[in-house]
Amino acid sequence: MELLSLKTAAFGLEITDFYLRAVDLKKRNGKTVISAISCLEIAPGIVEAGEVKDDKKLAEAIKNCIKKAKGQKIEKKYVVVSLPDDKAFLQVIQMPKMSEKDLRSAVSFEAENYIPMPLTKASFDYQAIPEPSGKIDHLDILIAAFPKTVIDPYVDAVKKAGLSPIAFELESQAVARILVNDGFSDAPVLIINVGDVKTNLAVYAGYSLRISFSIPISNKYFINTISKSLGVNTKEAEFIKINYGIEKYNSGEACLKEKKDDIKLAKGRTEKDQRAIFESLLPGIIDFTQQTEKYLNYYHTHASHEHLGKDKRMVRKIFLCGSGANLKGLDQLINMKLKLPVKKGDIFSNGLLAEKEKKSVIPDGDTSQFVTAFGLAVRGLVGKE
Predict the structure, then answer these.
(1) What pTM was computed for the model?
(2) 172 three-state secondary structure
(3) Cβ distance 88 to 19 under 8 Å?
(4) Strand partners, 200
(5) Cα angle at 80 between 153 and 160, to 5 degrees?
(6) Which of 130, 181, 137, 126 is nearest to 308 (CA)?
(7) pLDDT tens digit string along 107-146?
(8) Helices (H), ranges, the chain
(9) In the beta sheet, which residues pair with residue 189?
(10) Which domains does the chain have, with CATH numbers?
């Protein structure tokens, strides 16, 4: 959803229920570098379930996020902003081939048959999906729509923060820009983005997103469950999530079989603690994998046809990213349950940044949580060139 020309340089801003993440990129000596990066926790109630409840307080939080950025000062007034997947309607439709001039009005007319709300109450955008062989007799069009009641408060908050939004973008679109090399996948891939308050499941095939779902399992669930199970604060729970997680109990059909090999325990964590962590997380993780499998099956049986060849219509790879992706052992468990290779993704996945950037301004070296904000910033950077 573009509000201004993308020829204007912009930084990326991710907005969730609990955090703001900002990333500013620059070109230096022909290379892309992180100019500034910021992560700010926001007060509960400002954003709830992906909807802005207090645009004034959100505007102040955005200002603070920019002010506290590490690295150089963020001076850009233009920004690309994320919108929550679970508030969007996403659909690939087929249209007859026509000129770009005629396509806009034709898509607007056709979208009424797919968007489950009156167009007068929706903000929507579309993109024509390139077809690899160029031998089809129609256009595949991706349409994305949001209720205006959802998007308008985001616009208001960003403007009250003194910024000009040049585009609003689905979280999954921003993530795919980083994880899918050159924006093309010759076979469908599943992107699992374990975010602050939900997990987005998105299938990307060819040159575009194809479908997106959200489930309630999240990084917050992991941290709060560990905190309650072991009686520790959320900061220590985060440490335990990253350093212990569920890795030890990920082998064997029962999932609770202990490995016989010696596993080093740090900071006094006991075998009993590790079992407690796994058993407390197990119900949510089982639901997580079951819902993921259900949505995969839905895609395979209901998604719009692809033009990738009969042997390339099934998802054969998973990308795992987001603030909750660093739950130790989560990638192994997903691999075991879904029988698909799992690759962890972060802001270095597309090779745009040099590895030395990891030692620059990234908080705690945790790069996976910034994938969405980084994808937004890349769109702003591309707009500059």
Answers:
(1) 0.88
(2) helix
(3) no
(4) 193, 214
(5) 40
(6) 130
(7) 888 888 888 888 889 998 888 888 766 667 888 899 999 9
(8) 55-67, 100-111, 148-160, 171-179, 219-230, 234-243, 271-302, 330-338, 371-384
(9) 204, 317
(10) 11-86+147-185+347-384 (3.30.420.40), 89-144 (3.30.1490.300), 219-342 (3.30.420.40)
